[in-house]
C-alpha cells in the first residue's frame, strides 16, 4: 500500500521539481544579465565596437523607474500607449485573419492580394510616418495606424500558413460526409488554422508594442514611447532604459495574455 501511494505521488513530485528547476534557471539567467549590465556600466567598458561609457547602471535605472512610478503622469503615459497599441492590434487582428483566411482558401485571392501585401511587408514602421501624417487628419489615428502596420503582417502570414497546413484528407473526408462550404469552413478550416492564428496574434501583439516608439514619434504629449523618445532628446539616459523596460514588460505581458486566451480557445492543441 505504501509503495503504491509513493509511486502514484512521483509524477506530481517530478512535475513540481521540474517547474521549480525551470523557475530557478530563469531567475539565474536574469540575475546574470543584470550582473553583466552592472559590471559593464560601472566599469565604463569600452570595447571599440561597443561602449558602455554612457549606459546607466541598473541602480540608476531603478531610481528613475521609482520616480516614474510615483509620478502622476504615469497613468496618462500608460493609458495613451495601451489605447494606441490595442486599437492598432484589434484592427490588424480583424484585417489579418480575414485576409489570411481568404488567401489561404482561395488561389485567386492569393494571386490578387499577396503581391501588394508582400511589397508592403518589408517597409519599416518609421518609413510610414510621413505618409501616415498625410493620410490621417489626427495624429492619434496616425499613431494607431503605425501600430496597425506592425501587427498586421505577422497575423496575416501565420493565418495563411495555418490554413495551408490543414491536412487535405480532413477536407476531403468532410466533403465526402456532405459538408457544405460554410460547414467546412466553420468545422474544419477555422479550427485547423486556429493554432496558427493564435501564434500570429501573439507575435502581432509584440510587434505592435515594438512599433510604439516609432508611432509616438509622430506627435503626442503622453505615452511610453513618447516618454522614451523625449528622454533621448534631453539625454536622460536612465529614463530611456526605463521606457524600454516598460515597453518590454507590457509587450511580454500582453503577448502572454493573447497566448493564454488562445490556449483556452484551442483546447484540442497539445501543450509542448
Automatic annotation (TrEMBL):
The chain crosses the membrane at residues 86-104, 116-136, 142-161, 182-201, 240-258. Residues 78-258 form the ABC transmembrane type-1 domain. It is found in: Cell membrane. Signal peptide: none annotated. It is a multi-pass membrane protein. Keywords: Cell membrane, Membrane, Transmembrane, Transmembrane helix, Transport. PROSITE patterns: ABC_TM1. GO terms for biological process: alkanesulfonate transmembrane transport. One of its GO terms (cellular component) is plasma membrane. Belongs to the binding-protein-dependent transport system permease family. This is ABC transporter permease subunit. It comes from Pseudoduganella ginsengisoli.
Amino acid at each position: 500500500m505504501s509503495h503504491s501511494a509513493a509511486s502514484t505521488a512521483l509524477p506530481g513530485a517530478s512535475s513540481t521539481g521540474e517547474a521549480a528547476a525551470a523557475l530557478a534557471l530563469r531567475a539565474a539567467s536574469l540575475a546574470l544579465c543584470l550582473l553583466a549590465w552592472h559590471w559593464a556600466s560601472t566599469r565604463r567598458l569600452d570595447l571599440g565596437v561597443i561602449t558602455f561609457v554612457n549606459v546607466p547602471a541598473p541602480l540608476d535605472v531603478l531610481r528613475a523607474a521609482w520616480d516614474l512610478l510615483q509620478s502622476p503622469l504615469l497613468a496618462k503615459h500608460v493609458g495613451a500607449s495601451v489605447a494606441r497599441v490595442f486599437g492598432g492590434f484589434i484592427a490588424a487582428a480583424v484585417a489579418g485573419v480575414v485576409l489570411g483566411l481568404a488567401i489561404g482558401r482561395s488561389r485567386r485571392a492569393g494571386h490578387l492580394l499577396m503581391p501588394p501585401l508582400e511589397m508592403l511587408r518589408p517597409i519599416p514602421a518609421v518609413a510610414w510616418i510621413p505618409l501616415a501624417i498625410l493620410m490621417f487628419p489626427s495624429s492619434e489615428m496616425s499613431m494607431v495606424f503605425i501600430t496597425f502596420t506592425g501587427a498586421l503582417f505577422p497575423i496575416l502570414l501565420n493565418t495563411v500558413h495555418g490554413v495551408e497546413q490543414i491536412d487535405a484528407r480532413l477536407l476531403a473526408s468532410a466533403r465526402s460526409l456532405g459538408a457544405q462550404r460554410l460547414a467546412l469552413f466553420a468545422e474544419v478550416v477555422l479550427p485547423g488554422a486556429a493554432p496558427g492564428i493564435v501564434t500570429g496574434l501573439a507575435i502581432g501583439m509584440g510587434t505592435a508594442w515594438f512599433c510604439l516608439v516609432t508611432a509616438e514619434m509622430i506627435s503626442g504629449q503622453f505615452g511610453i514611447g513618447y516618454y522614451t523618445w523625449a528622454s533621448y532628446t534631453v539625454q536622460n539616459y536612465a529614463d530611456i532604459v526605463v521606457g524600454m523596460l516598460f515597453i518590454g514588460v507590457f509587450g511580454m505581458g500582453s503577448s502572454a495574455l493573447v497566448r493564454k486566451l488562445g490556449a483556452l480557445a484551442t483546447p484540442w492543441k497539445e501543450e509542448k
